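Predicting holo structure, 1,3-dihydroxyacetonephosphate bound.
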Amino acid sequence: MNSKKKLIAGNWKMNGGLAANEALLKAIMAGLGDGGGAACDVAVAVPAPYLAQVQSLTFGSAVAVASQDVSQHEAGAFTGEVSVAMLKEFGVRYALVGHSERRQYHGETDVVVAEKAQRALAAGVTPIICVGETLQEREAGQTESVVKRQLAAVIHLNGHCISEVVVAYEPVWAIGTGRTASPEQAQAVHAVLRAQLAAASEHADRIRLLYGGSMNAANAAQLLSQPDIDGGLVGGASLKAPDFLQIIAAAR
Ligand code: 13P
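Done. Tokens:
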């Protein structure tokens, strides 16, 4: 059940700017207070050019730095890619892997997602592996088979226990649409993922399963009270400090 610390991760996506980032982070850290102030873990996944700025602003605070992606390659002739070693140099603790926008617009397959998760884990960066069905798949009754296929691809990572990762269920139809999965819909899929993890690892109950997709200050508490929802991956609402702080406060 839900005895582990929840994780609230903001995904800024391709938003931000030096001044806006600073204002946002200062407001979040002030809201959390001196001792960190959060009963949960907090992270922000920021665009790569801002990693240095965000590392320096959040240093010593309760806000962990995350990347939005990581290359599956170690180094070399991969123009435009960012390696996990580079991310480590900027204090990155978590890397989003296989976000639906990467799968959809950048052709990331289950195999690539697994390679990226493996690369992150090997360097001690925790992958936040995203899974989720499209509206078409949900309407065709394929939700379970799609998320199970996506999770199966990453469940046996060489030399690592699946309990070292974070999994985020983000139904594609709920992302940026204002159309959230109901707590019951989200819980139902989380239970499927938990059962699949339990079949692969005796530590499945330790794995944090985040929900993402139009999570906001108004709906977070209900979503986060579900037995298998261990946190949130928050897009739009993570760009507004009061909203993000309210979601953090709901994650007790
Ligand atoms: P929104 O919260 O804006 O729907 O985005 C969710 C998401 O994709 C987080 O990774």
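The longest strand covers residues 41-46.
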